Amino acid sequence: MEHKYLEWGTLYRISLGIARGLEYLHRGCNTRILHFDIKPHNILLDKEFTPKISDFGLAKVCTREESIISTLEARGTVGYIAPEVFCRSFGGVSHKSDVYSYGMMVLEMVGGRKNISPGVDHTSEIFFPRWVYKRVVLDGELGLKRITNEDEKTQARKMIIVSLWCIQTDPSNRPTMSKVIEMLEGSIDSLEVPPKPYLSSPPRPSSTEFSSGFTSLQVQSSTSLE
To answer: What residues are annotated to the active site?
Structure first.
């Protein structure tokens, strides 16, 4: 079956739509809702490719004033869980944990791939955020497919820089979702490149339950991003 790929403008609008949805959960409700399982499988698209956040099975409700919350166990899916969720030495669990998951997901949207090194056999892995960070810092060709003009290149670069800010190990260095929206909608020239990610790539999950629904971003009959 021939795969159909979403255009960069559509990917950009999807990433912005998800950011707006998360911003509403974090700030738009009377109580703050932390999703704790932002990943491709939990993003649904309608026929206009408008994203909807789904599956609130791991969500936690807290007051808008609470900056740090307590959890008895790690919540989320391997590959998208913020460091502080599974190891408290990285910081407190908060709405910034959703920001991390969002960043990892958007990086997958941009790359159309998981943490697999390009040009090597399937047993070799690198941490994809480091690879893409190097490309941004060098300001060379991003090595991304289907970019046909400067507008698309700008959209891809915005998504990458914002995502790299979102996956900073220290939660205090991550932007809020309101700031994410501001950065995505603002000028590329106003975006600073964040510090280099230094966490190692997690082990590849053995179950297909953890595989990325954003790989190649295939558009099939389903309205989800799987």
So the answer is: 37
- Assigned token pair, 206: 């053995």
Determine the pLDDT at residue 127: 65
Q: Which residues of 14-38 are buried (b: 16+ CB within 10 A; e: fewer)?
A: bbbbbbbbbbebbeeeeebbbbbbb
- Better-predicted residue by pLDDT, 89 or 38: 38
Residue with tokens 């590959």: 79
Per CATH, is 8-217 categorized as 1.10.600.10? no
CA count, 13 A, side-chain hemisphere, 93: 22
- Rounded to 10 degrees, what is the CA torsion of 213, 215, 219, 220? -60
The residue among 215 and 33 whose pLDDT is bigger is 33
Q: Tell me which residue of 55, 188, 162, 186 sits closest to 99, measured CA to CA.
A: 162
What is the pLDDT confidence band of residue 125, given thresholds at 50, 70 and 90? Answer: very low
Domain spans of the chain?
A: 8-217
The residue to which tokens 């808008």 are assigned: 64
| Measured distance CA(44)–CA(152) in Å, rounded | 23
Per-residue pLDDT tens digits for 188-198: 999 998 988 76
Mean pLDDT of the chain: 79
What the block records as the tokens of 49 is 């490719």
